[in-house]
Amino acid sequence: MLREDAEDRRFAYRPTVQFIAHFGYVEIAWCRENTPMAEQHASRVAKSRRQGSPYLRVFALAAEGMADAVAKRYPDAVNALEKGLEFLRKSTAATEYETEMMANLAECHYRSGAFERARIIARRRSTSPGRGIVDCRNADLPSSALRDGHPERRRAGDEVEALFRRAEDLIRSRARGSTMRC
């Protein structure tokens, strides 16, 4: 955990140092579906936004969206993530995080039952180069959205199978070339 004692105060003037740890905890809370943790650390990321850095603003909006999603406030989550993406594109700050934000946005639509919107967003990013697990999420989410929400599931079956195969291939290829263990 972050320690807020005299030893750590030497970094207090560096908002980026503070935000990195708190943002990491927001991501952990997302994975664990831990609303109190997500909200607590998202508020800390939001405080770093006060420094005026466009980079920190993008991540503050992403953290807010993730915390809202964990709390199942999907309209608020979508709003925060869309604002963050809009600002990211306008300012060109934190462009390396765009793929992840799009995956989170697609997942929020998926969790709220907006399967078609989730599929469209995830497919838009699935053709762009991503990062590891984001590639897998972007291949898996449209297939799940098709499977769960497509009105003509029989016709969607071939596309669903192709997308699931792509996700599986990405997972296998990442596992062969990776030393990281989950």
Characterization of this structure:
With 182 residues, the protein is mainly α. It folds into two domains: 1-93, no CATH class; 95-182, no CATH class. It is built from eight helices and no strands. It is globular, with a radius of gyration of 18 Å.
Helix content: over 70%
- What is the tally of helical segments? 8
Low-confidence stretches: 178-182
Biggest sheet details:
none
Tell me briefly what this model is.
This protein is mainly α and 182 residues long. It has helices spanning 15-32, 35-49, 54-70, 74-91, 98-111, 115-126, 133-149, 153-177. The model is unreliable at 178-182 (pLDDT under 50).
Write the layout of secondary structure elements.
Blueprint: H1 15-32, H2 35-49, H3 54-70, H4 74-91, H5 98-111, H6 115-126, H7 133-149, H8 153-177
What labels would you give this structure?
182 residues; mainly alpha; 8 helices
